Amino acid sequence: MKAENVPPRATESRSGKELRALFDSGRPLIYILSSEEQRVARLLRDAGRHSFGKPVPLWSWTLTEGLQCDAGAPPAEGTTDPRAALEFIAAFNGPAVFHLKDFHDPMRESAAVRRRLRDLYALCTGHGKFVVVSSPVRFIPDELLHDIAYIELNVPDFVEIKGYLEEQAAGFKAQGHGVDTSEATLGLMTRALQGLTLDEAGFAIRRAVSAGKGFGLAALPALFEEKRLTVNRSGTIEYIPDAGSLADVGGLEVMKKWLEERRVLFQPKDSVDADMVPKGVLVMGVSGCGKSLSIKAIAACFGLPLYRIDMAEIFSGRHGPPEWAFAHACRTMEAIAPAVVWFDEIELGITSAATTGEQGRIFAFFLTWMQEKVRGLFVAATANRIDLLPAEMIRKGRFDEVFFVDLPRSDERLDIFRIHLARRGGDPAKLGIERLVGVTESWTGAEIEQCVVSAITKARLAGRELAFDDLLRAAARIIPLSKTMKEKVDQLRNWARDRAAPASARP
């Protein structure tokens, strides 16, 4: 059936390629799980054109309008009834694609509809007719399990969003708006919109243009803000903007060097073998020593967006069965790639396969996914109790490296003091913070930050500049975690000494 005169496209979205492959194979019944009806119609029209070598009729069915060949065209008479719509398809002569929207209810409620769909499987095979059901609800009757091809439509990938942006740019240009369609600009805008549906991307673009930002680089802040609002609303995935940089992390020079060396390998280049592309890191250590901050800095180092999968939401049940919600979040991340995906306190959400029920199934899925996930998706996980994680998760091949973030050394504590003072307008050189090294022995980075915040707050309430004595008095009031939880901290440090790579050079 595939037209010989239609050359394969150099760039094609994953969703478009999957649909075209189904058309080329002649599968007459297709079920698409998606709420994006307009996007499904675009993909069907495009796949049909490339499979047949010319445009073919695309009929759309809804319970309220019946079958329509084009938007605005009068519907075929009497086809609001699901059974009548199927009879129309059976009698139709010539190639065509029939898009049945929300047809899961007629399939569920009527044995006659299910029987007629089975008849259409034979009637449409080899005749260039395709019946495509799209619905946000998955329902495939047992009778049709072997007859209907099923696909889940993930969020649009880079190619699909870029093509959509080019269409939108042409429309704005025709309206007289300023448009920048250079490859560099389109690439940045596409990256900013990855993770959104096409409808959401359209809203973001129109928001930017209506705010006077135009269609170009100036629109990026508005696109990122819309993305933050939309992705965070999904519940299980949180988009984290402005993640920071490696310069914001005090110490940890070994891990920083490791990341900087692999930044070039992580860039998606055909010359770099897939086995060499970093898969991810597991960062464990004492609470408050900068694990989360270093994960945020990884995204800035690689120049990639950062997303956090919220395991509490996964297990809440608000997004379906936990194992389904987790798998859906991971597959969504693959569609967004390249990106950094962050699993915070991974030991609390993903445990051993020996665990019964949903946690065991999530663990089994996670191991396979880590091994087979798409290139360009870097997994960054943090853990406070790595001894709770099973050996299968921390072995080489899952993560490229397991780093241990220990209590900061004296020079690292000074570095952390300088970072937090400079961030809040203080001058470390004038304060003589070197005198705090002995006072802050075995402190975490979070405790140093709290010391700085408390001292600055005290000085400002008194209406004067920060002085060294303010820092000293604030330090005297802090009891470090290494004392209050000494046994657990010592146990963790002893466990990690020979089992993980130190994130800082050993003294």
Quickly describe the structure.
The chain is α/β, with parallel strands linked by helices and 507 residues long.
How would you explain this protein's 3D organization?
By secondary structure, this protein is of the alpha/beta class. It has four domains: 14-152, P-loop containing nucleotide triphosphate hydrolases (Rossmann fold, 3-Layer(aba) Sandwich); 158-233; 246-405, Rossmann fold (3-Layer(aba) Sandwich), CATH 3.40.50; 410-476, Helicase, Ruva Protein, domain 3, CATH 1.10.8.60. The protein is 47% helix and 12% strand. The chain contains 21 helices and 13 strands. It has helices at 14-25, 37-52, 82-91, 104-109, 111-124, 158-174, 183-193, 198-210, 220-233, 253-266, 291-302, 311-314, 322-336, 358-372, 391-394, 410-423, 428-431, 445-461, 468-476, 481-484, 486-496; strands at residues 29-33, 58-62, 66-68, 96-101, 129-135, 149-152, 237-240, 280-285, 306-309, 339-343, 377-383, 401-405, 501-502. Strand 10, helix 14 and strand 11 (377-383) form a beta-alpha-beta unit. Helix 3 packs parallel to helix 5, helix 6 packs across helix 7 and helix 18 crosses helix 19. Residues 1-10 and 268-272 have low confidence and may be disordered.
